[in-house]
Amino acid sequence: MPEERTGRPSGPAVTARPGGFGRPGRGGPRSSIAAMAYAEKPKDMGVTFKRILTYLGRQKGGLIVVLLLVAFSTGLELLAPYLTQIAIDNYIIPKRLGGLAVIALVLLLIYMTDAVVNLLYSFSMIDVAQRTVKSMRNDLFAKVQSLPIRFFDLRPHGELMSRFTNDIENINTTINQSLAQLISSVLTIAGVTVVMLLINWRLAIVCLLSVPIFTLLTRGIARYTLQGFIDQQTNLGTLNGIIEENVTGQKAIKAFVHEQESIAEFGAANLKLKQSAMRAQVFSGFIMPMGNLLNNITFALIVGIGGWMTVKGLATIGVIASFVNYAKQFASPLNQIATLYNTVQSAFAGGERVFQVMDEQGEYGDEKEREIGPVRGQVVFDHVCFSYDQGTPVLKDITLDAQPGQTIALVGHTGAGKTTIVNLLARFYDLDSGVISIDGEDIRNLDKDSVRRKLGIVLQDTYLFRGTVRENIRYGRPEATDEEIEQAAVMANSDHFIKHLPEGYDTILSEEGSNLSHGQRQLLSITRTILADPDILVLDEATSSVDTRTEKYIQQAMLTLMQGRTSFIIAHRLSTIREADNILVIDHGEIIERGNHEELLAQKGFYHDLYYSQFARAV
């Protein structure tokens, strides 16, 4: 789309559908700059944890099953060392082999049962995790659909995609692989503590001394790792934005021989990602070896003190053997918790970025807006002022009155504010001051979706989805029949080229319709709008990408479509402008001339000069 805003990205391409249609403009700052601008200071991790727990809480049934299975598995694992103690003290030392065989069979049964239980709770945990992240993805996607166009103007697409993929996947990995382990570790630590105190409280105290030391060690390291994980996720989003931008913009990159600059930009972003990942991973990597060292010291103390107690008759060999096993069981979950802490921090960093999007203000407020009724087509702009950036006005005191069935042409240089008028009519942005009304109703009091259903907007930058030609046309009116789709194609003169496609109307279009020419994509967009049968029509450079012969056929279809409808036309080509009921000349956000074609020529002003410098060559 040619545009309107100096230093701002262009508006979205839409057709007559609620909520608009198409891809936001790709202008504005580079991905890396926009991503850095969007990176916020870390919020309270406790808040993020509670919000993740809210999603987990929706899977209460699955979590209860996991908890019961983990508790059963923990009980089996606690029983095994105790049976080992009995085997040593009651059967091995006294050389009673018959009882030893029974205990050995019981231990074998315990380990086999434990393996089956672990398998079951792994499956249950996978189900809980997938259901949880499914809900988060649905909520995030629904939130994105409700966000205003301004939100997408300021954020690179790849960076937003990173929140759907990398950040959500970090949460999924943590829930899937870490939650059951965390529950098991907590239950194991609690169970082992109780059992050790019952068996020998002196040795239990020796083992428990490692807990406060390990806790302080982990918390000290965590201070350095949390920000590292947050920076890592942010920089990964930046890198994804650069990748997305370069993949979709390959033609421009090659046309301007910009490969080396793109490689340099990617390398700089990749270096930042590497540095933040190193900071997070190196510090977090200290936890495991330090934990192992602490555990080995504890084992040495238990063996030394336990051996002394055995010599003094304060403990049996079976007690010491079982205590070593319990000490290992006690140390293992501590190490697991320390390892999981890194994963959990990464998930919190991802969760924070996901919830940042969810907390954005949507374009649909809580107030109850009225549905627009049948539209006659009177559109009034009453002293409308608007700016994308505070203090930089784009539209200044715009006043116009389009009567039902009239055709209004907007003329002016690129950046004058023409398309901004259309964006305000569709409520993609809200006014700074003034009123826009349809049939006397202030559109700010009307439901946005109901207003957009009445509009048919064809923009220069059209967007086609991956799917068949028929499906892309039907996007204008989902309930339309195949016959109505083909009739709309005939009216827009797209039927002739569609039938020459390999599968006709069932031909699969690639992403953004890249297997069609620009003009063919524009024809499909016009077809989609004709099918939507809107009450108010907006054509923003609608025929700029088609040849002169095709334009004549399109103009015939447009004249038919515009009959009885209020129409706004932004065009540099002559044919439609000359037929308009009223032509508004826009310059630097102001209407400087108005009238029909003959009246404006007679004034010998801006339009007269523009016509003879540009339009006269098209005659």
Describe this structure in words.
By secondary structure, the chain is an alpha/beta fold. The chain has two domains: 39-358, ABC transporter transmembrane region fold (Up-down Bundle); 379-618, Rossmann fold (3-Layer(aba) Sandwich), CATH 3.40.50.300. Helix content is 62%, strand content 11%. It has 22 helices and twelve strands. The chain has a six-stranded mixed β-sheet, with helices on both faces. β1 and β2 form a beta hairpin. The longest helix is centred in the N-terminal third of the chain and has 50 residues, at 97-146. The radius of gyration is 34 Å and the shape is elongated.
List keywords for this structure.
alpha/beta, Rossmann fold, 62% helix, 11% strand, disordered N terminus
Question: Which helices and strands occur, and which strands form pairs?
Answer:
Layout: H1 31-38, H2 45-56, H3 60-92, H4 97-146, H5 149-153, H6 157-199, H7 201-208, H8 210-248, H9 250-255, H10 259-285, H11 287-311, H12 317-358, E1 379-389, E2 392-402, E3 407-411, H13 418-425, E4 433-438, E5 441-442, H14 448-453, E6 455-458, E7 467-468, H15 469-474, H16 482-491, H17 495-498, E8 508-509, H18 518-532, E9 536-540, H19 548-562, E10 566-570, H20 574-579, E11 582-587, E12 590-595, H21 597-603, H22 606-613
Parallel strand pairs: 3-10, 3-11, 6-9, 9-10
Antiparallel strand pairs: 1-2, 1-4, 4-5, 7-8, 11-12
Helix pairs in contact: 1-8, 2-12, 3-4, 3-6, 3-12, 4-6, 4-12, 6-7, 6-8, 6-12, 8-10, 8-11, 8-12, 11-12, 16-18
